[in-house]
Design brief:
Homodimer. By secondary structure, this protein is of the alpha/beta class. The chain has three domains: about 200 residues, HUPs (Rossmann fold, 3-Layer(aba) Sandwich); about 180 residues, Rossmann fold; about 100 residues, GMP Synthetase, Chain A, domain 3 (2-Layer Sandwich), CATH 3.30.300. Helix content is about 30%, strand content about 25%. It is built from 16 helices and 18 strands. The strands form three sheets. It has a nine-stranded mixed beta sheet with strand order 2-1-3-4-9-8-7-5-6, with helices on both faces. The radius of gyration is 26 Å and the shape is globular. The two termini are about 35 Å apart. The N terminus is likely disordered. Bound molecules: adenosine-5'-triphosphate, xanthosine-5'-monophosphate, glutamine and magnesium ion (MG). The site of magnesium ion has 6 residues, from loops.
Length: about 550
Amino acid sequence: MVGSDTFSADAADTTAEALSGELPDELTEQRVIVLDFGSQYAQLIARRVREQNVYCQIVRHDLSADRIAELAPKGIILSGGPNSVYEDGAPKCDPGLFKLGIPVMGICYGMQLTCEALGGKVDNTPSREYGRAACKITNHESLFAGMPDDMEVWMSHGDQVSAISDQFEPLAQTGTCPYAAVKHRELPIYAMQFHPEVTHTPLGGQILRNFVIGVCGCEASWQLSDFAEATIARVREQVGDRRVICGLSGGVDSSVVAALLYKAIGPQLTCILVDNGLLRKNEQDIVINEFSNHFKTDLHVVEAEDRFLASLAGIDEPQEKRRRIGHDFIECFKAEAEKIEDAHFLAQGTLYPDVIESGADPDGPAATIKLHHNVGGLPEELGFELIEPLRDLFKDEVRRLGLELGLPEILVWRHPFPGPGLAVRCLGEVTKEKLDVLREADSIVVAEIEAAGLYRETSQSFAVLLPVQSVGVMGDARTYDNAIAVRSVNTDDFMTADWSRLPYDLLAKISTRIINEVKGVNRVCYDISSKPPATIEWE
Ligand SMILES: Nc1ncnc2c1ncn2[C@@H]1O[C@H](COP(=O)(O)OP(=O)(O)OP(=O)(O)O)[C@@H](O)[C@H]1O
Ligand SMILES: O=c1[nH]c(=O)c2[nH+]cn([C@@H]3O[C@H](COP(=O)(O)O)[C@@H](O)[C@H]3O)c2[nH]1
Ligand SMILES: NC(=O)CC[C@H](N)C(=O)O
Ligand SMILES: [Mg+2]
């Protein structure tokens, strides 16, 4: 055990009293939902709404009108999407949602769907618009209140609404698109062909503000600090006088969760670091050090390398590796919890991308991309009640929250490291020997990125051990050794990412050092794939 029983996060102490009050539920109930039809920009819409200080959540496109009524959002936004509404099998929404009396705004595909559902017609158009378009506003009511007659908008469509029903009236047009924006004559239903969520529509923020504040009547009261305060109050109420164990990896998400929980329940919190043998070089020491510098609460370290390596032995299928790791984590938490009286809750730093990529959000849009160990990889019988306060947030929001909670920059800006750790970077079967090779190579990659002053400019940089041997010549002798792939990406939210344009000299240095210093490696490659279509991790 490390540290003492009393946690005193430096920053946590400074604001703990200020954050003690109960919060009105309206803060989180004033939400707008985005129905995602597979848009590239669904998250961007959610972000832009949150930037108006209104809480926004993405949900699956076919959520039933009954479920929407239960969620009682203040507004509903229908996103764009790659399909054409007239195709067989094109994704539709429950038409009942138009009758709920809740304001609706359709964007691009969302517009085409809205107009078609309410008696209009959508066709493929020879005058497709991709990119900038000049848009003329013909009706300055509500949505376009306070805006000039002419504005620049960003379009991306091959179909368009060719006829609207009598229920609608036009609000704006472009040279080739007669219905660039429309409104229902009686119901609070709006739709636009262009994308207000992208920065290339300079007045898009104002349009979204007019919708969420003006039309939906949201109070613009949501802030990350309110979110923290609401969460703290809720956790305090939920936990009562029982105890919470928090899976703490030393990463950003679990550190933010630990800081929130400490503010909520102070000494009723125990953090547990599982050393699963899949951590980076010296990681256990680094985490213990950082943790005791910034927090002084109960920290248990569980030594579980043998357990994890035994259950991974002989397994090469990535999803099965993740599933086993998820289960082992829970077994470790359970075994450790037996030593702690009344440990009823398990807290984890689960974020929204973990939930969508695992295909695990019952209200969410997405297919399973990979089973994140903390969501899709969990066993059915948990044995704990889960506390996941960050489940609806994206990484960059969690980072801002961490800074607001006073966590140090060095922790907040740490590159993420997945719970399944080196196991998903050691492709195929995992063995201790392979992990040791990978750990050394990885530490060189990170050290060189740091030495080049590029740690903050890149978002995640690491090494991957490929299941490939190739021929080399070292010291005039033939080698037949392993290949390492270097991966470095730039991203804010880890949902999409581009490969980092690292300088050649840096790549050369990384390659030389790995081949010279890591026994068993004779070849280094640089991964130049973006996400999508690749993912950041290789498994
Ligand atoms: N080694 C570990 N020991 C205990 N809990 C862990 C460990 N690794 C991951 N977890 C739990 O799983 C959650 C999800 O892991 P994830 O890697 O996404 O978040 P993180 O490690 O907190 O932050 P980061 O994304 O910066 O790495 C963590 O927040 C933590 O609760
Ligand atoms: O805690 C985690 N458990 C997991 O199972 C997991 N899988 C991926 N990641 C991290 O998530 C981000 C996106 O990763 P991908 O592009 O590989 O899906 C990247 O930051 C990955 O490192 C995980 N984190
Ligand atoms: N961006 C979109 O929503 C596109 C909608 C539809 N696929 C079109 O091409 O018109
Ligand atoms: Mg992590």
